[in-house]
Every structure is written in structure tokens, then in C-alpha cells.
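ok here's Flavin-binding monooxygenase, seq below lol
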Amino acid sequence: MFQVFAGSGARKKYADDEQQRTDVPDQSADGEVRHVHICILGTGFSGLGMAIRLKQRGYKDFVVLEKAEDIGGTWRDNTYPGCACDIPSHLYSFSFALNPNWSHMYSPQREIQAYLCDCAQRFGILPHIWWNNELRDASWSDDEQRWHITTSQREFTTDILILGNGPLSEPALPHISGIENFEGEIFHSAKWRHDLDLTGKRVAVIGTGASAIQFVPQIQPKVAHLALFQRTPPWIVPRLDHPISEEKKRLYRLLPFTQRFVRTRIYLRQELTALGMVYNQKAMEKGMQFAREHLARQVADPELRAKLTPHYAMGCKRILVSDDFYPAVAQPNVEVVTEHIREVRTRSVITEDGQEHEVDVIICGTGFHVTDARLPQCVRGRGGQTLADAWSESIHAYMGTAVPGFPNLFLLIGPNTGLGHNSMVYMIESQLSYLLDCFKTMERKQAQVVEIRSEVEAAYNDEVQQRMQKTVWASGCVSWYLDARGRNTTLWPGFTFEFRRRTRRFDRQNYDLLPQYIPLTT
Ligand SMILES: Cc1cc2nc3c(=O)[nH]c(=O)nc-3n(C[C@H](O)[C@H](O)[C@H](O)COP(=O)(O)OP(=O)(O)OC[C@H]3O[C@@H](n4cnc5c(N)ncnc54)[C@H](O)[C@@H]3O)c2cc1C
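and the structure came out like this:
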């Protein structure tokens, strides 16, 4: 038996790990697990990283809920052509599981997912995963001091709930009048239709964000015509991707410190960008000049170049890296449309100027529900208040991790932990250390419950929002970093090493700790 609730796909793929089920939560006689100490949500970098770090510390009483049939989160779901990381792979990976075998500086999606699967196998996490278990409800019980969990398959309780459901895991479709009447094919880039051959088709791509600039160069040579609907041009700098030589891979295998050295160098280089974004926007001017030269080198037509030239401060929206996007859009079968879309008809897209663009397929590169995701609606803290209620004005959490009114609930890469310039895995690992120290403190103090003090969380969020005012993200552009009220609730307003420093130790003075619950009947 591999896993009582394993999906058939996962069961087949990880069959060799079926025998590992020794170190997992106890089941009662009927094979049910009724209570676990820790429940983690998701098998992306966050959930998997948490599971690995717990396992390394000797914890065995934890489960990982995964709504899908495989590991990887972002890197399982985004399979569009050209999908790859945009932070170099040496850095965009766990510090405790360096991979000397990356094929490229920016490795493709398939390789990143394989890396995560390998980590899950190597660190013995597979037997802890409950596949096809979508979290439907999590309710805190004050009487029992534990969480009641309902998934698509079962019910159980847990002392501690850790949400690693990912900030970019719910694709957002655009609200355009008439889009539901479109009679061609329409899909989001995170749900790529591999069954659909785009050869010879007239394709509309909506959006020019991080995903679109990766898949447009891949589909452009195939399609008959590509209408690229651009709201705002992104700042794009050269990616300079290249294969990693066999000699280098051998060196990294033999002398891992050499790869660690490269990783540190990349980290410091990336971190420099925060200087311009957060502390001194003048420092971005060099970057803007560099990006303009990149555009000028790759696009000869002055009219097209004008359309592709950003007119906002670099960094206000995510800075993108690409060597092949501009050459692709400069091809004769591509039209960059800067007029706003007015409506979609059965076979065409109409822009504000009244022009009709006939298309067979619409691909939405329109991002994700970041500040308005669904999951918070099904997490209920003290008094039945949902996380969505607590966040009705704006999402917020102390260190992106803890929310008042939600005891023993921890978020991984929650509000204001996102980055415009460096690896999210660095932020995730900072939180993992913080939580491990928190659990150690709970054990040492024999505490059953920890909860962030509301005044501490409020002061923290004031500080974050205060600092945000001076950053490039507040310089006036429209971006997915901002919520409906214009507050930047997604990004960390500083150097990442500051976040690491502040999460190095669990600051128990900022939390209420309640002692172990002992029922009167015992
Ligand atoms: C195309 C793309 C490229 C990116 N490139 C980079 C990059 O180069 N560098 C970088 O730093 N960041 C990048 N990011 C950001 C990326 O999302 C994070 O780096 C990281 O992968 C997030 O990991 P996660 O585990 O928090 O979330 P995810 O990877 O989204 O994983 C969340 C998991 O939770 C599961 N889940 C969600 N809801 C439920 C539920 N209700 N019940 C059960 N399971 C649930 C999901 O199925 C999923 O497996 C990229 C994002 C995208 C979309």
C-alpha cells in the first residue's frame, strides 16, 4: 500500500516509494488518520520545503495535503512552451539540496519539477503526502485548541496548520465584455492546451507579463498571425541564458562549495537591484538605459520600438528577462496592439478604436489571483471569522506568516513576502527556520497554542506600508503587486537579508503562548 488516499497518477509515478510508509502519522485500526500534529498545505517549494525541514528535525507526525496528483505547484501547473525560471537555477533551488546537474542557467519547467520530485523522494516526504486532497474547510476550535480539517476526501484534526498554497496558483481570466461567447478556443497560460495545435492559427495573446514573454517566441514561428494585446510594455533586460557545461557540472558535484560560491555571487548581484527599487530610485536609471539599448539592438522598426518602450520607472512592475521576445514580436506575422480591448465577439477581438481582430484562439497571459484568492474563504479562526473576513480591507500578516485571531496557523510566502528581484526560495527558507524555532519554543514552553499579538501585527504592517511609500512600486504604475485599494500587500520592502535576519529566531515576546490543553476528565 502506498497511500490510502493516493491518486492513481502519483501512485504509478512513485511506486518505488510505496514501501516507505513507516515514518508517518499513526493510523487507527480502520486505516484512518484522525489527528496529526502538523498539517501542511501544498507540494510546491513552500510545502515541500517545510516537510523536508520537519523530517530533518525528526518530526514524523505530519501530513502534506495536495489537491493535485503530483508534486511541484507552480512547476507542475505551468507547462506552457518556454516556461522556465527567471532567477538563475543555482539560486532558485533549496540551499540544503543544491543541484549540480542544472542544464541551463535558467532551467526549464520540466527540470524544476523533476528537481522537486527528486527532493520529495530523497528526503522521504512522499509517504506523508495525501494526494487529491483539496482543503475545503479549516476551522479552529477554541474548546479543543486544534484545527478541524475537511478535504475533498476526508476529515481530521491537527494542532498546527501551515498554508503553502502559493500566491500564484489561481489563474486569473480577464473580465472582458462578451468573452464567454467566443466560439474559438480560449485558455490561460497556466492551463496550457497541449492538445491544441496552433500551427496556421490566428492567435490572440492577452498580456505581456512574465509568462507571455516566454511563450510568445515559442509559438510565433508556428502561427499564421499573432495579435499581442499589450496594456503596458514591460521593462526587459537580456537573459543571457546558456547551457551549463559538463565540466562545470562535474566541478559542482566534486566540490559543492564552488556551486555555493556561484550561488552567493548571483544572490548578491540580484540583491543589488533592491537598492534601486527600495532605497534609491536614481540607481534604476542605468538599468533603464541598459534595457533601452537591448530594445534598440533587437527591434529596428522605430514605430514598433515606440510601442514597446515603457514610460514608467523601471521596477515598478516586474522586470523581465528575455533574449528572444523582441526578435519574435518584430516578425511580420506579429502585430502588437496597444489599444485597449473593448469586447470579444464569437470570432474576434474588438479594440477601443473599433478595429476588429479576427482570431481562432485566445491565450490569456493574464496572471493570477494574488490578493483576492479563494482559499482564505475556507479558513476560519477564532469565533468562526474567516481569513477572507479578516482581510476584507487588505491582506496582512506578521512577517507574512502569522495573523491575529488565527492561532497555530502559519502562512508560507504570505502577504508582503514577494520579491521583484530575487529568489522566492530564499524567503521561503527564512520562514521555514522561523517556524522550526517556533515549534521548538512551543515544545520547550509546553505551549499548545501560539498566536501573534494583534498590536504587534498592526505595528508591523504600519511599518511595512510606511516603507512602501518610498519605493519604486509606489511610483504610479498599475501592477499586480497592488490590491484593489492600491496598497502593495505582496512585496517585501527591503533587502531579503533583512527579512532573514528578522526571522532568524522565533520572537516569542510578540506572541501569546497558551499552555497545553488538559481535559478535566483525565
Ligand atoms: C510561471 C512562473 C514562473 C515563476 N518563476 C519564478 C522564478 O524564476 N523565481 C522566483 O523566485 N519565483 C518564481 N515564480 C513564483 C513561484 O510561484 C514561487 O517561486 C514558488 O514556486 C511558490 O511556491 P509555493 O510552494 O509557495 O506555491 P505553489 O508552487 O503555487 O504551490 C502551491 C501548492 O499548493 C496546492 N494547493 C493550493 N490550494 C490547495 C488546496 N486548497 N488544497 C490542497 N492543495 C492546494 C497546489 O496544488 C500547489 O501544489 C514563478 C511563478 C510562475 C507562475
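fwiw The chain has 14 helices and 20 strands. kinda neat tbh
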